[in-house]
Amino acid sequence: MKPAGAVWLGWGLLLGAVFPSPGWAEPPNIVLILCDNLGYGDLSCYGSQLHRTPHVDALAAQGRRFTHFYSASGVCTPSRAALLTGCYPARVGLAWTEPDGWVLRPRSPNGLHPQEVTLAEVLKRAGYATACIGKWHLGDHPRFLPTRQGFDYYFGIPYSEDMTPRPGRNWPPLPLMENERVVQWGPDRNLLTARYTRRAIRWMEQHRHRPFFLFLSHAMPGSTTRPFASPAFQGRSANGPYGDAVEELDHSTGQLLAALRRLGLEKNTIVIWTSDNGAPRRRPPQGRNTPLSGWGYTTMEGGMRVPLIVRWPGHVPAGTVCDELTTMMDLLPTLAALAGAPLPPRKLDGHDVRPLWLGTPGARTPYRAFYYYHTNRLYAVRSGPWKLHLPIAHPRRNTRDGRPMDKLLLYHLQRDPQEKHNLAAQYPEVVKRLLQLAQQARVELGDGAPGRGCRAAGRASWRGLHRGPVVAPPPG
Ligand SMILES: [Ca+2]
User: Phi/psi of residue 258, each to 5°?
Assistant: First the structure.
């Protein structure tokens, strides 16, 4: 999985000239904006004809847009585990948990293992102030909360906004938390985007004089069939409540960027804008993953390939596009390198992709293979332009409309982003090579059972989140 040593030595020398060793005289601030279930085709700058996203489009014009950037999962919990640890979800035990299933449920005994080292912990050790604002979804038990995983400050709902009380489930009203306390049960979901944005800006203002890492993890467009938006955005878009939510996310981005400008932090702040997985299937359709095939919660391209925009004035070339394969698992090693922070002493799956972010001529993806897991099952493998769907006989949600798929399907993703023309019969040697790569993943990361390189999820002996006294709701 490692790139050719000589090539990377070359990059290292080149980067050494740009980046003073061991880190920066002035480490860059990092603002990471993550949306929930927003599709590849939901932004104007990615081809949406439905949504007006001028602020995100401007961010792309001032930064770099990635067209082959993957989440490590089609669903929330595993995707976020990969983003924060730099590992495949299966490696950190969160591809599938009992009794939760494919994502953690409220009051789960499971969570990201406290011994896992998150991006926040990496940066905190390098002197960064750290905040997580918004959706967490890596465990709601106190020992799994963001404040136990490297974030100095937390404000948000620790799981999905659709996990509200319902018959047969012992779920509390949605808990809005500040650090480790519930400050409001059942907050108005229409106001979440605006509240998160105000909190994020206030926190940046408070930490403007030191390097900071802000993880703004929006709840929207989210997991309901009727996404939420502030009254000022309701009914304003051409795409119903979904479009209203997307356009408010864009407005929020504009406010954050304006705050960075006002605080004089624009130049020395890396802004990263992405989504945790593709837009799920709705009838009629809401989010779009065009021109990719498939929907969120699957291992089709539209389920796992998501927008990524990186802006860093003077470093990341403005108005450029990167078509090389990168993934959410690269954020930890790449940002650690940019912050001059050492990597955790654990096996990681992501790569330091600074050459691709910085637009170094000739830079190529460091991935020999990328693996598409759904739950703890290996569904597909990509290498270069080729994607091989593996035969799936079991009845779990499948790559195509829930039907079992019993044969090998080989697609050339550059020529066939829709995954329509099966070339397995024409390219048996490619099939053979990808099957060998798949077998390596089965051994290391597992397929239905943990592989030899997998670590356990965190497990609490009691269920943490109980409906208790509410402290005074915070202003804003
Ligand atoms: Ca999601």
Answer: -65, -40
Catalytic (active site) residue 209: no
Q: Is residue 382 part of a domain?
A: yes
Nearest of 230, 243, 174, 151 to residue 198 by alpha carbon = 230
> How far apart are the CA of 344 and the centre of ligand 1, in A?
26
82 and 41 share one domain: yes
Instruction: Give the Cα separation of 340 and 284 in Å (integer).
Output: 47
Residues with CB under 5 A from ligand 1 (ion): 36-37, 76, 276-277
Which among 111, 120, 105, 100 has a CA at the least distance from the CA of 139? 111
Q: Are residues 397 and 429 part of one domain?
A: yes
Residue 3 has a CB neighbour count (10 Å cut-off) of 16
Q: Tell me if residue 137 is catalytic.
A: yes
Note the helical H segments in 63-188.
76-85, 119-125
258-273 residue pLDDT tens: 999 999 999 999 999 9
pLDDT recorded at residue 4: 36
Phi and psi at residue 243, to the nearest 5°? -65, -35
Catalytic, out of 51, 113, 137, 207? 137
Alpha-carbon span 177 to 190, nearest angstrom: 17
Q: What pLDDT score was predicted for residue 8?
A: 33
Give the distance (Å) from ligand 1 centre to CA of residue 240: 20
Express each pLDDT in 346-396 by its tens digit.
Answer: 999 999 999 999 999 999 999 999 999 999 999 999 999 999 999 887 654
Domain of 68, in residue numbers? 26-357
Our CA angle for 211, 339, 456, nearest 5°, is 105
One domain for residues 178 and 125: yes
Cα-to-centroid distance, 277 and ligand 1 (Å): 5
How many domains does the structure of the chain reveal? Answer: 2
Taking CA atoms, 126 is separated from 119, 150, 282, 428, in Å, by 11, 11, 43, 48
Give the Å distance between the CA of 297 and the centre of ligand 1: 8
Which one of 51, 55, 68, 76 is the catalytic residue? 76
Out of 9-13, 63-67, 249-253, 327-331, least confident range = 9-13
Work out the average pLDDT over 272-285: 95
Q: Which two tokens stand for residue 446?
A: 């597992």
Evaluate whether residue 473 is within a structural domain.
no
Strand order in the sheet with 409-412: 370-374, 377-383, 386-389, 409-412
As a whole-number percent, the residues of the chain with pLDDT over 70 amount to: 89
Query: Does 247 share its domain with 328?
Result: yes
Least confident of 334-343, 347-356, 392-401: 392-401
In this structure, what CATH number is given to the domain that contains residue 154? 3.40.720.10
